[in-house]
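so ive been stuck on this for like two days lol. basically i have the seq below and the ligand is fe (ii) ion, smiles is in there too. i just want the complex predicted, nothing fancy, no docking runs or whatever. if the output looks off dont worry ill sanity check it later, just need somthing to start from for the group meeting slides
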Amino acid sequence: MPKAPDQTTKDLWHVVAATDELAIGLVETTLLLDRRIALTRGLDGEPVVWLATDEENGDEIDAETVFDRLPVRTAYGYTWTCLGTPSAELFPIPEYAEPDRTNMSCGSIGIHVSAPRAVENFLDMGHFPYVHTDILGSEPHTEVKEYDVEVSEERDEVLATKCKFIQPMAAKSATGAMEVEYVYRVPHPFCSVLYKSCPEDENRRDVIGIFLQPMTEETCRAHLLQSMIDSYSTVTDLRRFQQTIFGQDKPILENQYPKKLPLDPRSETPIRADKSAIAYRRWLSQKGDYLRCDPAGLLVFHGVIPAKAGTSVTKQGSPLSRGWHRDKPTRPVRQGGL
Ligand SMILES: [Fe+2]
């Protein structure tokens, strides 16, 4: 019997589908926080979401007959819902509204790992040469250079800036290797947005979002967004590029152990590449539902292994045993400072 999600997680907006891919009048079912939910779109094209009873995937339904609905909003091409009391706003991605961008969903991919683990992998540049060989990285350019990380209290998000990496093929529009600058945001516990140098316009950034749907504590669906400056590639080509990258990440993610994200600093070894991951874990710890500690005194948050009360991920803390660390012993591991 899965444990009920903490209130912090219940009150979040959660992504559940690419809106255009929901067929009008047909039921799609999926899992959200261990609850079976059903989705469709009405004749007006608007998504409708509810807690599933006996509906099955592919059933025909008139959305007007669904009265007990969950909250719904659409943003960035996706449908979002909430099992608790949602906040009014979802995090902003202002670039999405720029008229000359090509915005697209790039698939919804099931992964046997927790949503926080998938966010953490998205933040990690150190795996580029080993997992995305000759696309996002290549040997001998394996060093993760010093970069800045902060937690913005005003925007309530983790922000990593000045992240630089030499990439053989940074985007579909790239014509050769280039040093790419990245900015990562984590504006939601299960979502991250990446801004990277745009091969076509050096003054602008391509935007890639990963929105994780926490299905259970150890499984999720990754919904991918691209918002690109690219006058030449087709949407199909842009999607295929991103799906190729994510196809390389998926088996690595699924080999991670444990599948939930440990927040206890003692389970880890510090390396510079994980500076953003450590900030993310600390931010998650702070967002955890401190007032609802379980009887053992543990903090509760969906998809993580909580630190014991009184401990948190600190600067001396460390990322843990990611599966590919063990599989890729050639990766430079830096002990000590972040
Ligand atoms: Fe990756």
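The chain has three domains: 7-81, 94-254, 261-327. Residues 261-327 form one domain.
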